[in-house]
Amino acid sequence: MNSTPAPDLSSPPEAAHAPEQPALAAAGPLASYWRSVLAILWKDLAAEFRSKELISAMLVFSLLVVLIFNFALQLDRVARENVAAGVLWVTAVFSGTLGLNRSLALEKDRGSLDGLLLTPVDRSALYFGKMLGNWFFMLIVQAIILPVFAVLYNLPMLTPLLLVFVVLGTLGYAGVGTLLASMAVHSRSRDVMLPILLLPVALPVLVAAVQGSGGVLEKRAWDEISLWFNVLAVYDVIFIAVAYMAFDYVVEE
Amino acid sequence: MLQSDRALRTLNVVTGLLLLAATGMVFLYAPLERTMGAVQRVFYFHVAAAWVGLAAFLVTFVVGLLYLRTGNPRWDRIGHASVEIGLVYTVMGAASGSIWARPAWNTWWTWDPRLITYTVMALIYVAYLMLRQGLEDPNRRARFAAIYGIVGFISVPITFFSIRIWRTIHPVVVGGSGDAAQGSFAMTSPMLQTMLFSVVTFTVVYICLLANRVRLEELSERVEHLKARLLSA
Amino acid sequence: MDTPDTFNYMLLGYAVLFGLPFLYVLSWWFKRRNLEKDLELLNTLKDDQKS
User: Fold this and answer.
1) What ipTM was estimated for this complex?
2) Which of B128, B140, B151, B154 is the best substitution to test chain A (most A C-beta atoms within 10 A)?
């Protein structure tokens, strides 16, 4: 990470290209805000595509969970269809916890978070950058797991409606998870702290996502599923807004 | 919280008297309920403990906001004390409810939305205490605890409504009809008065416990402070 | 309708309702005693340092 080129961050634009400053101001503070968010996101993605340690760990773990569930629940054909949504989301949530912990722990150990804090970047841009990165990793894992899952469980997993639930569910989980992980990494027992903090708070995501995707798999009518869609949407909005406001206080020194 | 010793002592005495009066009302004033028998008397303190437990977590939420705004360590002490007391109340409510449910619903536990929500809420605040324990720096501990107290409390209603969609057998005490729910009963006015008095009493007990707990925390901080000064000298 | 005898359940319920807070307050008492002992020790140490 130390060698990672972090565009825009290590060298603030106004220092490097002083004449460009008016243009930047004309583009508006919002544009420069999102540029820093994207820069942080890009830093995480670049580091990950080089090492691939986060995604590979999440992926192998997910596959193991899927297999273990199959043995632990002694799933026959009918039972598999009934619990598929539950297994899918437990897999997503556990591997997501793994990823969140790792992503924020790396940030702390390498001191790159402290470095980022020295730059004139809005702190909440840090949150959105990290959150989008974590969300993206969860989505990549899901993109690989879903087809595997469809084959193993012999279910049509790749319907658009199910993907909507996957996108919304992982968004809410990464949204509140990034905030809590950034606190958990400071605690003495940080490896066990995150799931304990995150799982009870994120329970509504799990409930709504399981019910919603279960409804999709059982081919229920939209009327019955839309309720869960709404719950997920409300949760996502509220928790990302709260995390956005609270993040300033997490990184404050 | 209460500055003078005398005020605290008065509060302790008043709380004791109120608790005595509430106990008297529960056993002597409230009538025996016909269909469930004596166990229904658990109801008064059960409801009071459950409601005030929830209120304690609301207090943590509010002082969490105040702490983040002002940075005054007193709000942090109150938030911490409130979570501890709220947890004691929550366990009291859950245990007494379970004991009541055994004869009324014929089971110790049911997967009812309100029960699940309450359990999850208790786990959130156990996590709150564990988070505090894991953080050394007092400033950071206070900040993180305030944030988690806020995030945790916001998730409680969402948890409740997302689980609510499954049907409930827990009787709705205030508002709405509990006719369909097993274990509900028609409340006569002595019963209602006893319940309301219990809730008021438990609120005062909560305030009294909070004041004493904050006092204890201040003593503990004084000891820590002195220890640190002696070690550095 | 017969009123069932649930007296024992009521007893158990109130044992819990009074027992738990009692234990909680008892834990304060121990904590407080230890703290006061510490405080006394620290104060004597401080006096020793001065002299």
Assistant:
1) 0.85
2) B151
